[in-house]
Input
Amino acid sequence: MNAAVAANVTELRTRDDARQVADLVAGDEEAFISLVRREHASMVRHAEQFVSSRASAEDVVQEAWAAVLAGLPRFEGRSSLRFWIFGIVANRAKSRGVREGRCVPLSVLADEDEEDSVDADRFFPPGSPQAGRWMRPPERWPEDLLEQAETLAVVRAAIERLAGMRRQVIKLRDVEGWSAKETCALLGITEGNQRVLLHRARSRVRADLERHFSAR
Output
């Protein structure tokens, strides 16, 4: 996306957010119901990263909705409405996670689980003119295979097995559809870290899929 297009998208988002916030502050029930339908499930999934159970995540999100309604008159549009809401969820979930003994500082999670996701012998070795590139690249899988319920279940299970920040990054990017910039801002990480974490997470999920398909 070039700079002009990105600026136009940002402007449209800002206008949409301002209109929606005005409706919500005015007490428009339909606007609130629409917002809840669009964001609630994603908010619960995000809260689950920090707390001990689905029930705790649901409680956190209920508290977050109350905080959103209370804070809307002070929303200044410096970030997207969605980013602002998810920031409230994250803060509340982290506090709950600390009380439950579940929450781990993001600075710790950023460095955990560093083992390779793909065997090193599938890449050209250091010193080679093609060092770091695939010697045995991944096979392309048929679209119908990737869309099967069984495959999707393997992907979901693989994501849940990921540790800390890898799981959070891939969920935000590939499950919730957040942009790289939004993901970095929400998690407090650099763009470079986000790219590395997302690559490692996707590689680990792909490795789990390869094992699953080879065992069939």
Observations:
- Residues 1-9, 106-114 have pLDDT under 50 and may be disordered.
- The chain has two domains: 3-100, 106-214.
- The domain at 106-214 is CATH 1.10.10.10 (Arc Repressor Mutant, subunit A).
